[in-house]
Amino acid sequence: MKIATWNVNSLSVRLPQVLDWLAANPVDALGLQELKQTEDKFPFVALQAAGYHAVAHGQKTYNGVAWLTRQPVQAVVRNIPGLVDEQARIIAATLDTPTGPLRLINGYFVNGQAPGTDKFAYKMRWLEALHAWVSAELAQHPRLLLLGDFNIAPEDRDSFDPEGLRGSIHHTPEERAQFQALLGLGLHDAFRLFEQPDKSFSWWDYRMLGFQKNRGLRIDHILVSAALRPAVAACSIDRTPRKNPQPSDHAPVVLTLA
DNA sequence: ATGACGGTGTGGCACCGA
Fold first, then answer.
1. A178, A135 Cβ separation under 8 angstroms
2. Of all residues in chain A, what percent carry a pLDDT higher than 90?
3. Which residue in the list A20, A96, A149, A189 is annotated as catalytic?
4. A2-257 sits in which CATH class?
């Protein structure tokens, strides 16, 4: 079983690349972020023709998340229950598998702009609400994945310039503490369960030849619960779509479960 | 310190992303 996450930076623009990628990488579930479209624009028909069911939580211009799955999902939740949030950043669903149900939580975490701003305060509130909710979800669904664009580089090795960017957005101690708090719930960063190349990143700035120079960040993550950890067989970042013409600035991250 | 690149909206650019 394969499960992936990809921030596509506008599904309207990236749909052909998503379809191409799925044809080459027929994963069982793909969590998308930054749809930048409302649900009425969502390409349900094209995805169905490609063999995928879809559930989406859309928003005009900004944000928006979706699950694409080979089999239909149940118990869909949009956004964090109890959190008043204008922005479409969470979609959760349950996928039945031969080895039992999987609770799949897909998030487009808040960017946060810079420490000290209102957006950073929103990011912290959002992360605290997420932590409380995921804790409750884990109690109900021990086989759980939390994946998506976290907008957090958890450690220095997840940044192309950890010294120069120390304390700046995606690198602050506050964000990293929230990431550790999620691990404290018993979740594991699937990518780090394996030996990985140095300077492994999932996002590169469009500007200044960021990808060509591998000036990137690892901010897209797949966390797995303790119950799933023994089943994790592989986790990798697929840089190939970033080489396409008109790419997303993010690359997919792919998890293999035995 | 700033802008660089790309997407969106209803624009003549601004805003946002990371």
1. no
2. 100
3. A149
4. alpha beta
